[in-house]
Design a protein that fits this description.
Blueprint (H helix, E strand, L loop, with lengths): L4 H17 L2 E6 L14 H7 L8 E3 L5 E3 L2 E6 L5 E6 L13 H12 L14 E8 L2 E6 L6 H4 L26 E7 L3 E6 L12 E6 L3 H9 L5 E2 L8 H5 L4 E16 L9 H10 L2 H9 L4 E2 L22 H10 L6 E7 L3 H15 L3 E7 L2 H10 L5 E6 L20 H11 L4 H17 L4 E13 L2 E2 L16 E2 L2
Parallel strand pairs: 1-10, 1-11, 14-15, 14-16
Antiparallel strand pairs: 2-3, 4-5, 5-7, 6-7, 8-9, 9-10, 11-17, 12-16, 12-17, 13-17, 18-19
Length: 490
């Protein structure tokens, strides 16, 4: 027996070394991207895989929501606030080995703001009047007027830098500058990335990353419990979180998101075009019942389209408190004493599918019948977001500080208010923090008092992971799964 001790010790040391040296990661998400071009689609699932992993912008979000340098190491802003001069990092290359320089930045910004641009957030670039590249490491962006949000806008996934040489195949073969390079996509199952050996910044600890797509909450629970996956970001079965918390193999991180979960209403669809009807729907909704029933208590009630953790948030939940009797009166006064029927089209996430059943039951109590249709994500984008063919839908808007969408009459819920549009234009031209804060509070109040949508809750962000993993984002200031700092503990 004593002669076996050295061998046993060696085996133990070897096992520890193997754990310490582990450099691959399998992480699951619920939604699979429809394609892999973050600059031409509204699907946040694209950014969930690619943001800060494969693609980078001039600036970027940290886990706290702060804006920090990305591909631009520094910048200057002209005294009048209309010219931004970006100085790029030297030695940056795309994954295909080509150099990333000022001409690529110019191409990316010009493409995003072009008349035929398919960028889902084209409004982010509307204020740009000209982009020039005086030398390979310098980019000058001329704005038509000052924009206090410009550095913030450049951190969005829609503003990542791409190259003209690889743009044709970007939807299937993305080529970026990030710490991980795209390897392959097995549709319906996974996307594989590998460490970018030529990365300009700090090399990531992980060598190989696999994103698995598991839409069913029951399957998500089984895969995690069996440790077939190492982590599940935005875990879709909140009722199972206590089981993981009690198991020493796992850690549970519960953070906040920018995800305003709303019962979106088509403001140009039949009865929903009338404010009293939208107000009636808002009063028919019991937010806490939805949070408890669909999210098992995970979520913060909201009364407007703004994140409660933002210092400029105004609690307007009282404007749309749960009051079914008031809702029935509003409907009757609007000419719908017997109610009406409309559609409720639901995308795949569990907050929508589970929440939709509860919302339908609550609306039925005041006489509104809903025809529920469960859509896959690509169908939802086509029918609801682009086609505007819906009455009601439930979706979480995960873009940061995105109240500006209410100033876009062609946006999918089709809200058209000149007062708000003027206010948001003034906000964009204002850099004074106090003035901006006041304007943001006014904007929240306008849309809440107009009952543009039914405001439900701020989406929580639970992640279940192997207890040995470090560096995962707990919060989600933008829809992203940034793995650049993730490592296995020794």
């Amino acid at each position: 027996m004593p002669r076996l001790a050295p061998a046993l010790a060696a085996l133990i040391l070897s096992a520890h070394a193997a754990l310490a040296q582990q450099s691959d990661l399998t992480i699951a998400l619920q939604l699979e991207p429809p394609h892999l071009d973050p600059t031409s689609a509204a699907a946040g699932a694209i950014d969930s895989v690619l943001y800060s992993n494969v693609f980078e912008g001039l600036t970027k979000f940290t886990e706290t929501g702060a804006i920090v340098p990305g591909l631009a190491e520094s910048w200057e802003i002209s005294e009048d606030g209309t010219v931004y001069t970006f100085h790029l990092h030297e030695g940056v290359t795309f994954h295909d080995g080509s150099t990333m320089d000022a001409e690529d930045v110019k191409f990316s910004l010009d493409r995003a703001r072009a008349e035929d641009s398919l960028n889902a957030q084209k409004a982010l670039f509307a204020g740009i009047s000209e982009v020039t590249a005086p030398d390979p490491l310098t980019v000058e962006v001329q704005l038509a007027e000052p924009d206090g949000n410009f550095l913030f806008n450049m951190a969005w996934g829609d503003a990542v830098i791409v190259a003209p040489e690889s743009i044709e195949g970007i939807a299937q073969q993305p080529v970026g500058t990030g710490p991980f390079a795209f390897d392959r996509w097995v549709s319906g199952d996974r996307i594989e990335l590998s460490r970018n050996a030529g990365y300009w910044g700090e090399a990531p600890a992980l060598e190989h990353v696999t994103f698995r797509f598991i839409s069913d909450p029951t399957a998500a629970f089984a895969a995690m419990m069996a440790q077939d996956i190492d982590a599940f970001a935005s875990f879709p079965a909140p009722e199972n979180l206590p089981m993981f918390e009690a198991d020493p193999r796992f850690q549970v991180l519960v953070g906040s998101t920018e995800g305003e979960t709303i019962l979106a209403m088509n403001n140009k669809n039949g009865p929903l075009a009338e404010k009293p009807v939208r107000e009636a729907i808002a009063h028919a909704i019991d937010r806490q019942a939805i949070i408890d029933g669909a999210m098992f208590g995970q979520g913060t009630p909201i009364g407007t389209h703004f994140a409660p953790h933002n210092p400029d948030y105004v609690d307007l939940t009282g404007l749309s408190d749960y009051d079914p009797e008031k809702a029935r009166t509003l409907l009757a006064d609007a000419g719908y004493p017997e109610g009406f029927t409309t559609t409720l089209k639901l995308p795949p996430p569990s907050y929508a599918r589970r929440g939709g059943e509860i919302v339908a039951a609550q609306l039925r109590e005041i006489g509104i019948e809903t025809q529920i249709t469960n859509l896959e994500w690509a169908q939802w984008l086509e029918e609801v977001f682009r086609g505007k063919d819906f009455g009601l839908t439930i979706v979480s808007h995960t873009e940061p500080l995105d109240i500006g969408i209410y100033a876009r009459p062609d946006y999918y819920f089709q809200y058209d208010n000149a007062e708000l549009q003027e206010l948001m234009a003034a906000l964009a031209a204002t850099s004074d923090p106090a003035a901006r804060s006041e304007m943001l509070k006014q904007a929240q109040t306008i849309i809440a008092e107009d009952y543009v949508n039914g405001y439900l809750f701020q989406l929580a962000y639970p992640t279940v992971a192997d207890a040995r993993l470090e560096g995962l984002w707990q919060n989600q200031p933008t829809q992203a799964t940034d793995l650049s700092a993730v490592r296995w503990s020794e």
